[in-house]
Amino acid sequence: MSAQPEQAPRPPAPAAAAQLLAQLRADRRADTWVPAFERDWAKALEDSRHSYSLTPLHDVVRTWQLRVAAAPAVDAYMDSGRDESGFVELDDVLGTRR
Q1: Which residues, including other chains, have CB under 8 Å from residue 61's CB and lie 6 or more apart?
Q2: I want to staple 60 with a disulfide (CB 3.0 to 4.6 A). Which of 22, 39, 44, 68 is the partner?
Q3: What is the chain's pLDDT, residue by residue, as a tens digit (98 residues)?
Q4: Whole-prediction pTM value?
Q5: What is the gyration radius of the CA atoms in the chain, in angstroms?
């Protein structure tokens, strides 16, 4: 029997953060992504120190892996020349927030 529920995600590989950071540094978005990753990592590291859990660090790695994986699709969408000027503002639909 396993102590973890079946739906629990697997933790990233021990070197996943270092590999991800190397990948971010090689990307054309490195100027913005590397500082953002380092900021998220530092916050997660501090949270882990207080909680004695690696979950915040795993969450940062998973989130950034998904961002990197989605980047080509976002680039393709942005490069497609779609005009988004005809959309309605969310505040117009929802009204003013209190």
Answers
A1: 12, 16, 17, 20
A2: 44
A3: 556 666 777 888 889 999 999 999 999 999 999 999 999 999 999 999 999 999 999 999 999 999 999 999 888 888 887 766 677 777 777 776 65
A4: 0.73
A5: 18
Supply 98's token pair: 């209190």
Residue with tokens 């961002």: 67
10 Å Cβ neighbour count for 67?
16
Query: In a 10 Å sphere around its CB, with 0-12 CB exposed, 13-18 middle and 19+ buried, how is residue 37 labelled?
Result: buried
Helix, strand, or coil here: 40?
A: helix
| Separation of alpha carbons 6 and 4, rounded Å | 6
What are the structure tokens assigned to 37, written together?
Answer: 């990753």
Burial of residue 61, with CB atoms counted within 10 A of its CB: 0-12 exposed, 13-18 middle, 19 or more buried? buried
d(CA 22, CA 7): 30
